[in-house]
Amino acid sequence: MFKVIRRSVGxxxxxxxxxxxxASPKRDSPHKTxxxxxxxxxxxxxxxQSKYVEEPRTQLEESISHLRHHCExxxxxxxxxxxxxxxxxQSLVQWGLDSYEYLQNxxxxxxxxxxxxxxxxxxxxxxxxxxxxxxxxxxxxxxxxAASLYYPQQAIVFVQVSGEKLYDWGxxxxxxxxxxxxxxxxxx
Length: 188
Fold this sequence. Notes:
63% helix; elongated; MICOS complex subunit; two-stranded antiparallel sheet; 4 helices; mitochondrion
């Protein structure tokens, strides 16, 4: 193609000096015509027609496809349940971390109070021998009584709120019973 001729003056230690480079065509190569840009294969579209041929599916691919179609309802159900339970689990974990931090820096006298309230629950469980209703009522009742001795303000608020809720439930029950009573006696 081209021959590069380099001319420099000076020893190798003076390599920082500039020098000139001359390029000249080889004398023994035949003269070629120049190639245009649109004639380059890089810029042209190949002239054959290409056709996409899908390979046949193998037995393994068919088995995996069948398995995926069979498991799809279960995986979508699992994804849905995960998206529903994730926020609840995150709030539960946060509550656990907050409780742990509170117990690490508990106010003075907290653990003795907690022990008395727990002991009251155990006493209620021991006194409720025999009856299942007593086992459901006595331990929470004794624990609530012991907790109300240590935390009277919170006990008053709890009683007020629970009293209002019980009144609402009773009123709703009364309305339902009254409607049923009217429907049964109007048909007779």
